[in-house]
Amino acid sequence: xxxxxxxxxxxxxxxxxxxxxxxxxxxxxxxxxxxxxxxxxxxxxxxxxxxxxxxxxxxxxxxxxxxxxxxxxxxxxxxxxxxxxxxxxxxxxxxxxxxxxxxxxxxxxxxxxxxxxxxxxxxxxxxxxxxxxxxxxxxxxxxxxxxxxxxxxxxxxxxxxxxxxxxxxxxxxxxxxxxxxxxxxxxxxxxxxxxxxxxxxxxxxxxxxxxxxxxxxxxxxxxxxxxxxxxxxxxxxxxxxxxxxxxxxxxxxxxxxxxx
Length: 260
Known about the structure:
alpha/beta, Purple Acid Phosphatase, chain A, domain 2, five-stranded mixed sheet, 6 helices, 25% strand
């Protein structure tokens, strides 16, 4: 049976105004470059944007994102979830609203969580989100992939790990009860990461804009290129995953920046 091909993009940090730069980078250009790169490979059945779609949380930024996406992928379903830079009420105001909260496709249960703490950088999963997760997992025996924006485990950089999901134990109390949870996926850390916990694959994905240097004490940008993560998800719960990055492109980025 045909596996599910899912592509994750994350941390686009798109502004409300065309041409606005972030750390010297035109984040619209890098987003377009990543979407065009996805087009050159096997076509995904669905694309998931895992938060920080916007940098300023303005309504116009989400409309711009959806417009850009639809130019490149007019027929491919898009799902999204909010990050710490996002405002869900403005995300919901777009004219063509992406999939949110939960979606079943090709024998997989995709669950999307909101790990924001309003007006803060760090993550938390309030009881309503944990209840949503429990409801979705209890309602279906299908293999499940759970998405959130913040990392529930440390990725090895002291500064970004200070913004970890602060009640990750409660989150794992839910997922550990359900053996059909096969993978947990997030953004936020602007870097490639893979580990396992209790036979569940844990993935983080490069940003479509600037990247954070791994294994650092303090904020530092990395020279690796923007990218995305692809998943091949088999009906029996097996997952194959790889990261693809932009090549042969030059971006103006302020690598001396000490924050953003």
